[in-house]
Amino acid sequence: MDLIRFFQRSVLATIANTGLAPVIKPVLGGRGAILMFHRVKPDQGHSFQPNAHLEISPDFLDELLELMPQWGYEWISLKEIPDFLATRSRGERFAAITLDDGYADNLEFAVPIFKKHKVPYTVFLVPGFVEGQALPWWILIEEVIRKNETLKLPEIVDGLGGQATTKTDVEKKRAFKYLGRHYLTMDQEKVFGSLFELCQENGVEAVKFSQETFLSWNDVNALVTDPLCTIGGHTELHPSLARLSDDAVRDQIVAGLDQITDRIGSEPEVFAYPFGFKSTAGKREFRIVSELDLTCAVTTRPGLVHDEHNLHLSALPRVSVNGLFQKPGYVQALLSGLPFLLANKGKRIDID
């Protein structure tokens, strides 16, 4: 466990174990929380799981959906948040479910649980993932590293003499960190080709593996029939928007929205920024999204929703339900608001 994660867990455990959360929440708990999920699936038990933070178990989701109303939250859809902030009393709190990227396991494992509890949910789709026109580097490099003890590296990401040793978990984690940094920051137009080459050289069928990981359009059409489900945009190809020009940012967002509209017959009302943290989505991206006909947009910046966010609906924060912190007490500690106040250096909202 690295030091940052140890500190995070220590803070959450302290708040949870001392009973501070219910005391702090009336002061710092805001109007509600947008919960962020990615994958919902049983634990595979691998010792090398660099994306474990993106996965939670179906059992934990089931438990959390049961507990949130007991903690004083009303389940609403993401698109209902502006109206909730404008019309509901301050003593009422909402919770909204979001799932990023459109993983196939959402339909298999998560949707039955949402239906069981009658909880609305929003799935943010990347048409490029559905059709194999974009590749999720974080998923593919995990698979490539897991399957190999020595990696052949494409020239564009090579700083290790053409190959990397990945026999031990320590070596695998080091390689994942190295490659992840390259793919997040490289010229976005080169990501697909480089990833395809990396996979081809190391025995992974990139497009096939990616398409098996994400929802198909048939799956999406099945979701659309569920009145609890909202489909949101997440760009066409999931690039780091901050590395694109103004026109390219707009084109990516609009193209994704338009392709979803063509497939499901209705225009998405909500949007999630790819990656969504400060270095990948900031004031410029918020401005561009605010000029589109959307109800709201979410980041991955940590925080609760406050009254002030009604003036910044293109930059809403979320609570990451982290696969490394699958305990109700940890979530309750986050909902107290104190961890976010500390993380945001005393600011209730972070829109810079």
TrEMBL record:
The keyword Ion transport does not apply. Pfam families: Polysacc_deac_1. SUPFAM superfamilies: Glycoside hydrolase/deacetylase. GO terms for molecular function: hydrolase activity, acting on carbon-nitrogen (but not peptide) bonds. One of its GO terms (biological process) is carbohydrate metabolic process. This is Chitooligosaccharide deacetylase. Belongs to the polysaccharide deacetylase family. Keywords: Signal. Is involved in generating a small heat-stable compound (Nod), an acylated oligomer of N-acetylglucosamine, that stimulates mitosis in various plant protoplasts. Residues 93-352 form the NodB homology domain. The keyword Membrane does not apply. It comes from Cohaesibacter gelatinilyticus. InterPro entries: Glyco_hydro/deAcase_b/a-brl, NODB_dom, Polysacch_Deacetylase.
